[in-house]
Design a protein that fits this description.
alpha+beta; 2 helices; globular
Length: 116
């Protein structure tokens, strides 16, 4: 019987990258909320993306906001809830391995508190 063996260093690197992207999502959400005081947080990834002011290049560090995936992880926003004034005051961001065991072993989440 053939049992595939995966190089755990790649999965560990993907997991570290996913954690970094979730922290970046928290920062982007804070900026979005400050820039859109009547809306609050975003409930979708795409509004958090902004084009590179220096023009197009081969690497877009925020490109995962458009595709929803990077480095073997799928990112999403959910559990949005509004305050009494209608502003979005709560969100949850998650990162799941696209191929469990191949692209990563663990899933991660964060929310508006910034805790991972």
């Amino acid at each position: 019987m053939f049992i595939p063996k995966f190089d755990s260093s790649r999965q560990n690197a993907n997991e570290a990258f996913a954690v970094a992207k979730l922290r970046q999502l928290n920062t982007l959400q804070e900026k979005y909320s400050a820039d859109h005081p009547g809306i609050g947080f975003s409930c979708a990834l795409q509004p958090l993306w902004f084009p590179n002011p220096d023009g197009p290049n081969d690497y877009d560090p925020l490109g995962f906001l458009i595709s929803g995936t990077t480095s073997g992880y799928k990112f999403s926003l959910s559990s949005c809830s509004a305050g009494s004034d209608g502003r979005i005051v709560h969100y949850q961001a998650t990162a799941f391995p696209v191929w469990l065991g191949a692209s990563g072993y663990r899933a991660f989440c964060t929310d508006d508190s910034g805790r991972l």
